[in-house]
Amino acid sequence: MDGRIPVIIVAGFLGSGKTTLLNHLLTNNAGARIGVVVNDFGSINIDAMSVAGQVDSMVSLGNGCLCCAVDARGMDDLLSRLARPGADLDVIVVESSGLADPRVMIRLVLACQNKRIGYGGLVEVVDAAEFETTRVRHPELDQHLWFADLVVLNKTDRIDDTAHARIRELVAGLGKGTPVLSTAHGRVDPELLFERPERPRRDDVARQLSFDELLAEHDHDHADSGDCHPHSAYETVEFTSDEPMDPRALMAFLDERPAGVYRIKGFVHFGLPGHRQKFSLHTVGNYLRFQRSRWEAGEQRRTRLVVIGTGIDADSLRQRLASCVADGEHGDGLIEHGMLSVLRFTHS
Ligand SMILES: Nc1nc2c(ncn2[C@@H]2O[C@H](COP(=O)(O)OP(=O)(O)OP(=O)(O)O)[C@@H](O)[C@H]2O)c(=O)[nH]1
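^ thats the input. predicted complex w/ guanosine-5'-triphosphate below
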């Protein structure tokens, strides 16, 4: 696999539902291979990992707080073990206790020297029912929310609609336009967090349901009513343009994504000499990656992006993207310079 493996930090105070979220992702992995770093294996759904052949993709620290137990070198070693080519992981999830300082965790991942690793963002899990009491006990929760790229407002089944609306507003006000996703039992759509891998399917002669599919079906059968449709919890905005995009303007947009945006996927047509290929774009939180490939024969050269988040102003988002369409007034030099910043994030 080319490209970097995004490392997503899942943080949250005691009992907020981190492990529940992680287990949900492991059982509904959309075909992605997930590596995990956890404090202990006790409550991880090992069955889900072992049927996916991923038992060797877990690293346990076995002791307390990740940010105290591991230094930069330690984290580098940990992540490098998981990122080894044979493991073929698509994403790594680091479960971090509420007591770990998120800034330290982010720094540890960013300091990783391994070129196969990229920081994929901080997901803060919040117990909606306990939010106000947790905040009194741990004022640093506000800081967690500020650094988060996505807030998962969990346990919404435990509060009524009025309390939900109040807590949601409070949580949103503490972020910097950070999207807030309401869930019960950590049921986040995995495609919101990572890319569905494009692996060639092994079409066996008599193909049976894979363990992944069986597990997904099992989980679906047992899903509580009320939150079976994670898609309804966030919005998607589509943007298409047949005109080429201006790389400088698009990178400026990506550097400063509008409030509420958590994920962007799709492909971009720059159409510049030497860069006429299809640039697939994939962002999760702070993670940004382009991948360059050929257009299929007969495929229309066009940009098509899907922006996912919560509380997005769809009209202004489309306008901002429309303003990234090349208007031909910039000199070639400037555009070429803009292309360099795209290429910094590009894997062929
Ligand atoms: N009612 C309700 N219970 C939940 C929800 N999510 C998790 N729980 C329960 O809350 C408890 C704590 O969940 P965990 O996933 O272990 O939380 P955690 O953040 O990993 O906990 P620590 O590792 O101890 O910090 C478990 O008993 C879960 O079954 C939810 O959305 N609603």
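The domain at 234-347 is CATH 3.30.1220.10 (Hypothetical Protein Yjia; Chain: A;domain 2).
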